[in-house]
Amino acid sequence: MSNGAGALLEILRRQPEASRSELAERTGLARSTVGQRLELLSALGYVEEAGPRPSTGGRPASTVRFKPDGGVILALDLGATHCRLAVTDLNREVLAEVSHELPIADGPEQVLGRVRTLLLALLRRARRAPAQVRAIGVGLPGPVEFASGRPVNPPIMPGWDGVDVPRLLSAFGAPVLVDNDVNIMALGEHREHWPQCGDFLFIKVATGIGCGIITGGRIHRGAQGAAGDIGHIRVPDADELCRCGNRGCLEAVASGGALARRLSAQGLAVDDARAVVEAAQRGEPLAVAAIRESGRTIGEAMAGMVNFFNPATLVIGGDLAHAGDELLAGIRGAVYERSLMLATRELRIVTSQLDEAAGVVGAATMATDGLFDPARVDALAARAVSAG
Amino acid sequence: MSNGAGALLEILRRQPEASRSELAERTGLARSTVGQRLELLSALGYVEEAGPRPSTGGRPASTVRFKPDGGVILALDLGATHCRLAVTDLNREVLAEVSHELPIADGPEQVLGRVRTLLLALLRRARRAPAQVRAIGVGLPGPVEFASGRPVNPPIMPGWDGVDVPRLLSAFGAPVLVDNDVNIMALGEHREHWPQCGDFLFIKVATGIGCGIITGGRIHRGAQGAAGDIGHIRVPDADELCRCGNRGCLEAVASGGALARRLSAQGLAVDDARAVVEAAQRGEPLAVAAIRESGRTIGEAMAGMVNFFNPATLVIGGDLAHAGDELLAGIRGAVYERSLMLATRELRIVTSQLDEAAGVVGAATMATDGLFDPARVDALAARAVSAG
After folding, report:
1. Could you tell me which residues are beta bridge partners of residue A241?
2. A91 near A153, Cβ under 8 Å?
């Protein structure tokens, strides 16, 4: 049962400022309760006085507002070979940011040790102290048990299986939330550009293929946290051997990695997804054709998901999305042709606007969502009341 | 913001009785507020005194409880050719029930007129007055815009497109909620047998094929309310013409209707899904083989959904589910073989336990969920406070 502190903070995070009587009216709380809860939120550093509002007669109403500089968030997007790290304020505005080469296969101790050093330097650059860190969000390139923050049999992360990632980042004394990269990219893109969209899919097409699912503003994780793992859907009539041991998986046929292997065998010098896109941008006919075909294959697989889930928006991200229309045209064609008319009537299929920033924006979003979860804020307020 | 009335009712609906101090503790409301809200709930007819609880010393605590006979629910499951109607108490216990031939193609005025007559007879049988009806839940065999209760281009319901179903049942003076049959079957089966299951799918295999999706205890409807419409997913290498105008749809290949057509062409006298199942139960080899193959085809299509959605439980219902193991074996084989190991590690695939009652149980569940929605109860309580 809510005591109102969380609900008040939710309102203040969504508008520039509010008077106490507006807050009482919108929450149904007594004015005295509003005042008491605001004191607690102010002691936590999350709200502050905003001064009097110009009055239309009578005594001017004093207002309060959310305080974005009441702490900082650390946002970590760890990929297969690179990391992107950011310090943001409590509104997820980036204060300092860095990208760095950092092979995830170096293992958790070495990678997270290096990350800690980079984060301390970033905090200095942002002129903030480590003690000001309020929450940490981490995206990893593999499956994660969200409740514990531990990777689960991650295929490209040797040494990370079952590792307690929050413990390895506990030096900052802030809660650490960990999820897989596609989920946080979906969350970032959704919150930043599609916040009103109730049913949203984000498909990452890079070395692998994965999907993040947002419904009712939340990530759909599924029973084992495996939801969105579309890379191993079977493609009809395909026979390519997949790293998972099956044949004909979507990822083995249509990912950037698969295209790089196929084009290399045809004599084109491309080692990875980015090189394939560059070749297509140079106008290499083989690369252009391969990307279009890949879009079509992905679209055919997604047509079933679109019927099943009925999303309003489907965003395509990841390295291969840089091929732009080549990839998109294939996906759109196949989805519109093969999904039910009712399910595609208002469906938008577009490329990611956040692009390479989707991961850190999503990590910061996950961290602030956890930090300002109304039930958590209520519990903090209740503890403060009983302690005081 | 909650005023507590809805939350109190939620608690009382889940346990046999509670004392006022327990309720105050669990909700965080002041004891005086608890007393005031309970008076309102009692005036609405939803709670009553349960008398003193045996005491372990000191004054015995008086308790209150939910009052299942504080009104009745009408539950309507309207199929293509038959209807099933029930009067239940507020705990969804069936007080009287009837099944009746009633072709949906007779059109809304005639069908709902007949339904009203049948419901009045059922109420008499249950010794309840029409004025005691608190809510009505309706399942229809086609797509429905849930917010308005209007069917949307329903393929087998001539004359029903856009019809205001709640208005045609307004004589009972109670709120009317309408959804498609597969959604309410999923809701009924979930609440009755899998209430703890977070991610749940119910697949109906009958004349057509559809899927109900439950996540976090709620029906996932999707952007246009079309979620779960898996009957038109494309089956690789299939060419059968579907009623939707495409070729190779799952429904055109593997539904009971498709099997009946195919077996008839092979000389077996079966007109519909039920006849196909009866033939299989008699041991007709053609029918047995066709049902197994249908299971395999459905399973191959579902393998992708299982990777995507990662459900914990997948229930198979509808007429063809009466074929039991023949259908189930095919579905299980294909799903376990083609889905990711992580997604199927704890996946259960079973047949419906509610079977033909799934629709009415689901309709009653939808009606009580709407009636006792905490926000709605809070609003009623707030109105009573300001009126009093």
Report:
1. A247
2. no
Residues A100, A161 within the same domain: yes
**Given CB atoms, is B153 within the 8 Å cutoff of chain A?**
yes
Mean pLDDT taken over chain A: 92
Distance from CA of A222 to the nearest CA of B (A): 5
Whether A313 contacts A353, CB under 8 Å: no
Are A224 and B346 an interchain contact pair (Cβ–Cβ within 8 Å)?
yes
> Does a structural domain hold residue A291?
yes
Least confident interval from A311-325, A350-364, B11-25, B371-385: B371-385
CA distance B99 to chain A (A): 31
- Final residue of a structural domain among A52, A67, A82: A67
Chain A residue with minimal CA distance to B10?
A1
Query: Span B108-133, mean pLDDT?
Result: 97
**Higher-confidence position of B4 and B61:** B4
Considering the domain architecture, whether residues B84 and B162 belong to the same structural domain is answered as yes
Burial group, residue B26, by CB count within 10 angstroms (0-12, 13-18, 19+) = middle
How far lies B161's CA from each of B75, B80, B153, in Å? 22, 15, 5
Question: Chain B residues with CB inside 8 Å of A150's CB?
Answer: none
Number of independent structural domains in chain A: 3
Answer for the pair A42, A380: CB distance below 8 angstroms, yes or no. Answer: no
CB contact under 8 A, A305 and B304: yes
Report the pLDDT value the prediction gives residue B1, as an integer from 0 to 100: 56
Assess whether pLDDT exceeds 90 at residue A364: yes
A-chain residues within 8 Å CB-CB of B232? 307, 339-340
* Full-model pTM: 0.90
Name, in order, each residue with C-beta under 8 angstroms of B81's C-beta and a sequence gap of 6 or more.
B101, B102, B103, B104
Question: Taking 60 as the threshold, does the pLDDT of residue A54 lie above it?
Answer: yes
Query: For residue B21, which of B67, B61, B54 has the smallest C-alpha distance?
Result: B61
Structural domain span for residue B214: 194-353
Residues A257 and A138 in one domain: no
Q: What is the DSSP letter of A355?
A: G
Which CATH number belongs to the domain containing residue B80 in this structure? 3.30.420.40
pLDDT tens, position by position, A262-272:
999 999 999 98
Burial of B157 (0-12, 13-18, 19+ CB in 10 A): buried
Q: Give pLDDT tens digits for B228-280.
A: 999 988 888 899 998 888 889 999 999 999 999 999 999 999 998 999 999 99
Structure tokens, B266: 């092979």
pLDDT for A140 beyond 80: yes
Q: Could you say which of B2, B228, B309 has the minimum Cβ distance to residue A222?
A: B309
Q: What is the mean pLDDT of residues A338-348?
A: 82
Say if A386 falls within a structural domain: no
Residue A273, classified by CB atoms within 10 Å of its CB into exposed (0-12), middle (13-18) or buried (19+), is buried
Q: How far is A249 from chain B (nearest CA, A)?
A: 9
- B166-187: per-residue pLDDT in tens? 999 999 999 999 999 999 999 9
pLDDT value for B55 = 64
The CA R_g of chain A, rounded to the nearest whole Å, is: 23
